[in-house]
Amino acid sequence: METVGKWILDRGSGAASYLFGGWSGVLGTLLVFFIFDYLTGVAAAGYVGGLKSKIGLIGIARKVTA
């Protein structure tokens, strides 16, 4: 499982570097806020009892395409 995580991070940072011309502080900050937003959304959904993987995937897709 650790290898999969490293592979995803490697591919993600490579794609970001290709698309944005390098990894910058602003891009890193954006990524941190994106992850924080996702985790707080998962926590809120778990708190109210509405945690569903299909809804989570739709939310991620909306964030990536917006």
Beta-strand segment tally:
0
- Low-pLDDT ranges: none
Mean pLDDT comes to: 83
- Count of DSSP H/I helices: 3
The main pleated sheet reads as: none
Q: Bin the helical content.
A: over 70%
| Strand fraction | under 5%
Radius of gyration: 14 Å
Order of helices and strands: HHH
Shape label: elongated
Summarize the structure in words.
It is elongated, with a radius of gyration of 14 Å. The mean pLDDT is 83. It is built from 3 helices and no strands. The protein has 66 residues and is an all-alpha fold. The chain has a domain at 22-66.
Task: Please give the structural blueprint.
Elements: H1 2-20, H2 25-48, H3 53-65
Please tag this protein with its features.
66 residues; mainly alpha; 85% helix; elongated
Give a quick summary of the entry.
The chain has 66 residues and is an all-alpha fold. It has helices at 2-20, 25-48, 53-65.
